[in-house]
Each structure stands twice: as C-alpha cells, then as structure tokens.
Amino acid sequence: MTNLHHLAGEAVKNALDRGLTVATAESLTAGMVSAILADTAGASGMLQGGVVAYQNSVKVDVLGVSPDLLAAAGSVDGEVAAAMAAGVRAALGSDIGVATTGVAGPEEHDGKAVGTVYIGVATADGTEFFDYGFSGNRAEIRGQACGAALERLLAALSS
Fold first, then answer.
1. How is 38-77 classified by DSSP, letter by letter?
2. Is the peptide bond before 67 cis (omega within 30 degrees of 0)?
3. Which architecture, in CATH terms, is 2-158?
4. Would you say 122 and 95 are in contact if contact means Cβ atoms under 8 Å apart?
5. Max CA-CA distance within the chain?
6. Is the pLDDT of residue 1 over 60?
7. Do 155 and 42 contact (CB within 8 A), yes or no?
8. 149, burial (CB in 10 Å: exposed 0-12, middle 13-18, buried 19+)
9. What strand order describes the sheet that includes 96-102?
10. Fewer CB atoms inside 10 A, N or C side of the chain?
11. Per-domain boundaries in the chain
12. Which residues in 96-125 are b (16+ Cβ under 10 Å) and which e?
C-alpha cells in the first residue's frame, strides 16, 4: 500500500496546487481509490466524494450510464468506464472524475478474463479510458487497479 499512498499524496498535492476537485466512481475497487485519497492530509480540499457502483443499476440510476451500452458491452468495458467517470463528475460537481471497472476474479465476467481492468477519466476536455491486464489474486488485482486509477488521476492533474 505504500506505493498507493505515495501516488495518492502526489494526486492530492497536485489537485490542491491547481485548485481542482476530484470524484470517484468505483466498481471493482469498491471505494479503495477514494479511501486511499482520503488517507492523505489535505484530501478534504480536493475530494468531492465517491460512488461505489458495484451493480449495473447503480451505474445507470446514479451515474447515468446508458442501459443500452451496458446491455451491449457488459459492465467491464472501456466506454462504460468513461461513462462512469463522466457521470460521477457531473453528479458530484467535480473537475475530474475517475472510474474503475474490471474483473478481479476468481471467474471471468461478461466474457472478460480475470485481470481485465478499465480506468475512465473525465475532465472538462472530455472523457477517455485506459485498459489494463493485471494478474494475481483478487486482492492483488484490485490493488493494481487502484494504483492505475491513481496514476491516471495524476496524469489528468498534470495535463
């Protein structure tokens, strides 16, 4: 977790320096990203909040993800991650939205292999997603997804 806390510390510092706020929408990480950000002193000045959207109904009803997209692509999809990020950015009024979705295992989900992870990022400039293939057990994959989300947040804060 030390590396995660280091990434979170950098993200909090960069957000505070730039006067930007962040919100998270998390499926497979179930709140880990926002929790690690909140472990960092100063987080209250940049973290708007987070939504744990484990179920598709939450992705649709709270984050505004298209039910047609979910039906066509499944929940583990890059466009879904981007839509989650945009949805949480709008819902919580933040400058940046970061989202996680993926398969932590032990079985594949929606035809996607264990370790498949998508990180969505939404800013005023638009949304994008990044795909990853991690390995390890459930906890390790979730930890790697959290790290990837923090890295993508840092990149968005640096652009």
1. HTSTTGGGTEEEEEE--SHHHHHHTT---HHHHHHH-SSS
2. no
3. Alpha-Beta Complex (3.90)
4. no
5. 42
6. no
7. no
8. buried
9. 47-52, 22-26, 96-102, 116-123, 126-133
10. C
11. 2-158
12. bbbbbbbbbbeeebeebebbbbbbbbbbee
Q: Tokens in use for 140?
A: 């390790």
The residues with which 129 forms a beta bridge, in sequence order, are 120
pLDDT digits (tens, 9 = 90+) for 76-126: 999 999 999 999 999 999 999 999 999 999 999 989 999 999 999 999 999
For 29, 39, 104, 159, the CA distances from 36, given in Å and listed in that order, are: 11, 5, 19, 22
d(CA 139, CA 125): 33
- What is the reported pLDDT for 159? 84
Give whole-number Cα distances, 149 to 72, 77, 88, 98, 133, in Å: 25, 15, 14, 7, 14
Phi, psi for residue 40 in degrees, rounded to 5: -95, 130
